[in-house]
Design a protein that fits this description.
The structure holds 2 protein chains of 2 kinds.
Chain A: H1 3-18, E1 29-40, E2 43-55, E3 60-64, H2 71-79, E4 87-96, E5 99-100, H3 106-115, E6 117-120, H4 134-146, H5 150-163, H6 169-172, H7 182-194, E7 200-204, H8 212-229, E8 232-237, H9 240-244, E9 249-254, E10 257-263, H10 264-269, H11 274-281, H12 321-325, E11 331-333, E12 337-339, H13 344-349
Parallel strand pairs in A: 3-8, 3-9, 6-7, 7-8
Antiparallel strand pairs in A: 1-2, 1-4, 4-5, 9-10, 10-12, 11-12
Helix pairs in contact in A: 4-5, 5-7, 7-8
Chain B: H1 4-9, H2 27-36, H3 39-56, H4 93-128, H5 132-146, H6 149-159, H7 165-192, H8 195-202, H9 207-219, H10 221-243, H11 255-262, H12 272-299
Helix pairs in contact in B: 2-12, 3-4, 3-12, 4-5, 4-7, 4-10, 5-7, 6-7, 7-9, 7-10, 8-9, 10-11, 10-12, 11-12
């Protein structure tokens, strides 16, 4: 491919993005009443039933919940990489600076990815192509989108590796993914996400596959980069310990619902939903040594057959008759918070 | 975890002290490294190269002309001057075997090339586009699988008046592409669900980029292994079809024809007429099977 065609490609990609009706006053990302279903052999699984949240530039949002509650599906829906079918987005909107991404055609959507929103996956080894060097993968990504020459792209790859603090970046750029340690691989993933300077980074359990000391380093790196580049960061995790230091606000998800939304300090201090409360109680603490660790009894309900009423009710110690029949709306809680529990006051004051 | 700022000030994180491992080797570089150390690979490739040299440069190996035959020499036994003896028609057996290699190998090489190209293309299409593309390709391969190879080959070859390298290659390709298509489809299906494909898509890669840069390089190894083994198989198939009278015809020289010609005399005191051409077929087929095995061992990381 000649330089001129690359330039023209870059031109069209930028033009397409520039011509979208961006609204500078709208929130950076606004997810409103998002609903996703999976059509499976066992019936329709309601993976997400009306999740809403907003994210501003420079802000970090934690999405919290146990396995299978719809965290990753939310991330994939925002990125537009859900497998459709079996998945189907049945309602809601995902607005980036006022532009509803769900209304864009696939080609425009592709330009939005990487340029505007990027994602970091949980397992960096499987998220990197084993047959190419990390430098090649970084350079190719940059070259395809920016129209840079091969030499420029290679230099950019080294810069990106330096940005994520990989030592001896000039040499490591020619190494293959399997030659990196787990933490270093996750840094490479972060470098790939940062390559085109996106406005938003979604990190889907970025530290789950790492050991604890490396977790802290990677989280701190993410937080530093987010601050210095003034990006929005969505941190998806099931580990309440990981998010506490880094995030500004939290959305707690359960069985496809956003059950509680609050600032990080409020939620740790005084949860307003029984599920959040139970999650907090199940964190091991040094001062509770020797005592039994509180656990949430039972399992989340299968998404193909959600119970009537509140989906947490079978496991909830605050549940009353009303919970089995009436699906709780998002109640306003003092402090600009939300909780999907009929008896949030009881939880709040307990 | 409690004081993440501290770990930053400590300078280089502990994990990065990991020494640079041996030379940066790609998957294919690694496979070559593995192959080089496998004695079976060297034995098999020596045999294969020998046969290829016979086929490409037959004149280097014998001074005798395979078409100058004297009936006086008919069925003469192997001797010090003529190690492989003479054929029924009184031709030098060694010259016949040497000159017979080219057509057998040409058919096998062409059939392998075509089946591999078709198999990779069809398999990738079927694996990458679920839905009607996959359904059509998979059902067509099912139909071809229902057709017994030998019966199909005999029936199709009967249709051709002229049976040369191209007609036999066409029939072998027609009956052989389905296996590779299935293997490729399965390989693409499993590669497609890898995280790096999702990651590439999330980073705005086009379908073409995903197929050529992420799926093909990672999915193609099993097809190469099978193609190598199939090459030996096609040599055997050509010999079989020619022996049955639907492959090459006289006055061509191929291994199949030599077997056909020598077979009636094998039990009449002249086993060399049958054994020698058969031995060449067997050794060649074996060479490519062993080569395929060595390739599979080298490409499959689970064996290490």
């Amino acid at each position: 491919m000649t330089e001129t065609t690359i330039e023209s490609k870059r031109g069209t990609e930028n033009e397409v993005l520039a011509n979208l009706p961006w609204d500078a006053n709208a929130p950076l990302l606004e997810v409103d009443n998002l609903q996703v279903e999976f059509h499976t052999r066992d019936g329709v699984a309601k993976a997400i039933n009306g999740v809403s949240f907003t994210l501003d530039a420079g802000e970090t949002l934690g999405i919290l919940g146990e396995s299978g509650c719809g965290k990753s599906v939310t991330a994939q829906a925002i990125m537009g990489i859900l497998d459709i079918p079996p998945a189907k987005i049945t309602g809601g909107s995902i607005k980036l600076n006022g532009v509803d991404l769900l209304q864009l055609d696939e080609k425009t959507r592709r330009h939005v990815r990487a340029n505007k929103i990027a994602i970091i996956f949980q397992d960096a080894l499987s998220a990197l192509n084993p047959v190419f060097t990390v430098g090649w993968q970084l350079a190719e990504l940059y070259r395809k989108h920016s129209g840079a020459s091969r030499a420029q792209a290679k230099a950019k790859a080294v810069d990106l590796l330096k940005l994520v603090r990989i030592p001896a970046a000039e040499q490591r750029v020619n190494a293959f993914p399997h030659q990196f340690s787990g933490g270093m691989r996750q840094r490479v993933m972060i470098a790939m996400a940062l390559a085109l300077e996106p406005d938003i980074i979604i990190a889907d359990e970025p530290t789950t596959a790492l050991d604890v000391t490396v977790q802290a380093q990677v989280m701190q790196l993410l937080a530093d980069l987010q601050k210095s580049q003034n990006m929005g960061l969505i941190l998806i995790t099931h580990d309440m310990g990981v998010v506490a230091d880094v995030v500004d606000k939290i959305t707690v998800m359960y069985a496809g619902d956003a059950v509680e939304r609050a600032d990080v300090y409020q939620i740790y201090e005084r949860p307003a939903h029984p599920y959040t409360k139970a999650l907090l109680e199940s964190i091991p603490r040094v001062d509770m040594k020797g005592q039994e660790l509180a656990a949430i009894k039972g399992l989340p309900p299968p998404l193909t057959q959600l119970p009537p009423g509140c989906s947490f009710q079978p496991r909830c110690r605050f549940a009353k008759d009303r919970c089995t029949t009436e699906d709780p709306p998002l109640y306003d809680v003092p402090g600009n918070r939300k909780s999907a529990c009929h008896y949030w006051e009881e939880v709040f004051n307990s | 975890m409690s004081d993440p700022a501290m770990s930053l000030q400590e300078g280089p994180p502990a994990e990065q002290t990991e020494p640079a491992k041996d030379a940066n080797r790609s998957l294919w570089g690694d496979a070559w490294y593995e192959l080089k150390r496998n004695p079976i690979f060297w034995v098999a490739s020596t045999m294969a190269i020998f046969v290829i040299l016979l086929a490409v440069f037959p004149f280097l190996w014998t001074n005798a002309d395979p078409s100058t035959c004297r009936l006086a020499n008919s069925r003469e036994k192997p001797s010090a001057d003529h190690w492989f003896g003479y054929t029924f028609q009184g031709c030098d057996m060694w010259a016949k075997v040497v000159y017979g290699a080219s057509k057998s190998l040409a058919v096998a090489a062409l059939a392998t090339t075509f089946t591999t190209i078709i198999g990779i293309t069809m398999g990738t299409l079927a694996g990458f586009f679920p839905g009607w593309v996959d359904t059509i390709i998979s059902r067509v391969t099912d139909i071809f699988f229902g057709l017994p190879f030998l019966l199909g080959a005999v029936v199709f070859l009967q249709l051709f008046q002229i049976r040369n390298v191209w007609t036999i290659t066409t029939v072998l390709t027609l009956l052989g592409w389905t296996t590779l298509t299935r293997i490729m489809r399965g390989s693409v299906l499993s590669t497609k669900n890898k995280d790096y494909v999702d990651a590439a898509r999330a980073l705005g890669a086009t379908n073409g980029h995903i197929v050529f840069k992420h799926i093909l390089p990672n999915a193609i190894a099993p097809v190469f292994v099978l193609s190598t083994i199939a090459l030996g198989g096609y040599i055997g198939a050509e010999a079989t079809l020619t022996f049955l009278g639907v492959g090459f015809q006289q006055p061509n020289t191929t291994w199949g024809l030599l077997i056909q010609e020598g077979q009636p005399y094998a039990l009449q005191g002249d086993p060399h007429l049958l054994v020698i051409p058969c031995a060449f077929v067997v050794v060649t087929v074996l060479a490519f099977i062993l080569l395929g095995d060595a390739l599979r061992d080298a490409l499959d990381p689970r064996n290490r």
